[in-house]
Amino acid sequence: MSSLRTRERLCLKGVWKFVLALLGNFFPPSELQHDPVIAAKLAHLAQRAKAKIQLGGSLPLHISLIATGVMFMALLTPPQWRVAQYAPDFRTQPVRSWQGHDGSVTVVTFHPSGNFLASASRDGTVRVWSMPDGTLVRDLTVNYPVLAAAFTPDGTQLAVGGYGNSVALWDWRKRQVVKEVEFQGLVEAIAISPDGTKLASGGSVWDAQERRYKFGEIRLWVLDSLHLLRVWTVHDAPVSTLAFSPNDSRLASGAWNGEVTIWEVDNGVPKFSLTAYKGWVRSVAFSPDGEFLATGGFAYQPIGSWWEVPVRIWSAKDGALVRELRAGSTRSLPFSWLDFLRGHRSPINAVAFSLNGEWLASASNDKTVKVWGLEGRLLCSLEGHIGLVNTVAFSPTNDFLASGDSSGILALWRIHR
């Protein structure tokens, strides 16, 4: 019995040291010192482990190990709306979260003034909230699951699309549809040119014989009148995302087959195509200077460090891969073998550049939002969503970040510079 207790004490002591080693790699020292929740759990766990080591304990060895493992997992489970800071020169804090919709949030987008936030959902509504207090200002009933929405550059209208086989322009203040055009096709993406003259919608075409949405389609419209300028039947899969370049001359499209294409807007000719992921592409975004294109998606094959999924940055001129944003490659030596835990471990649903061109945010099915420096550093991880994070957006003033998830929750985060 004495030898058994000795082995138990030694084994538990080893497990405890392993827990501390893991914590030292996973959490930056600043978090361990300043997060009261983590500090309290560490103190409690230390007392329990110390007592167990000193007294030998009365529990069987396997129960002791299981209990230690349970406490360790509880310790790694972050409290709701926690910010994991990885850079001393970038600070973020949660402002508020609220139940914005009854269904999955598909889009969050800021008004050009930064005073309002629009959110769209599969529950068939688009809602406009005042910022930063989160008060509901307008509630638009669209009557079909909404997959895409965007403010016009003057902020007077919202373009909306989804399962309604149409694109509609809403006067959101009057809660009225100004213009709507119907056609046979699912609308998964909407982009409006920065000069406010054109609107692009992307989605898929219904195949009556196979009874499914099969081919990708892009439609280019005159914004004010929704007069159709051009139709592209593109990709071999539905179009999932669109983005205009800052100078209005090019349009980027991403599809569910992993392809990204850059189009010349004036003549409709493809400039180049690339395979962003061996899976699918969920989001594309041009940098404010138009030099780079960011993509978010998922690959069926493992990429890089274990299961980490990177955000990829491409040259907007020729499609060359410039950089991959992944936590496992951003730290200087000595390298931490747990760095990959900080990166995205599930499909990336949205990417967004800040208007100052310094940061990029990514939202993922792993229920986190990551903010990156464009040089490759992971600046912070925003945690607390209970659903898959589908969408993210920076405010025009670069002071706030908004996110929305599949449980209908909206969250607002403040950026300190």
Protein architecture, described:
With 417 residues, the chain is of the alpha+beta class. Helices cover 16% and strands 46% of the residues. It has four helices and 29 strands. Helix 1 (2-26) runs antiparallel to helix 3 (36-55). Mean pLDDT is 82; it is low at 1-8, 15-42, 49-79 and 330-338.
Low-confidence residue ranges: 1-8, 15-42, 49-79, 330-338
Number of helices: 4
Averaged pLDDT, please?
Answer: 82
As a whole number of angstroms, the C-alpha radius of gyration is 24 Å
Q: What structural category do the secondary elements indicate?
A: alpha+beta
Strand line-up of the largest beta sheet? 1-26-25-24-23
Shape: globular
Describe the main β-sheet briefly.
5 strands, antiparallel
Please count the beta strands (DSSP E, at least 2 residues each).
29
Give the termini separation: 60 Å
Descriptive labels:
417 residues; 46% strand; 29 strands; alpha+beta; disordered N terminus
SSE diagram, text form:
Layout: H1 2-26, H2 29-34, H3 36-55, H4 61-76, E1 82-85, E2 91-99, E3 105-110, E4 116-121, E5 125-130, E6 136-141, E7 146-151, E8 157-162, E9 166-171, E10 176-182, E11 186-192, E12 198-207, E13 212-222, E14 228-234, E15 239-244, E16 250-255, E17 259-264, E18 270-275, E19 279-286, E20 292-299, E21 311-315, E22 321-325, E23 348-353, E24 359-364, E25 368-373, E26 378-383, E27 389-394, E28 400-405, E29 409-416
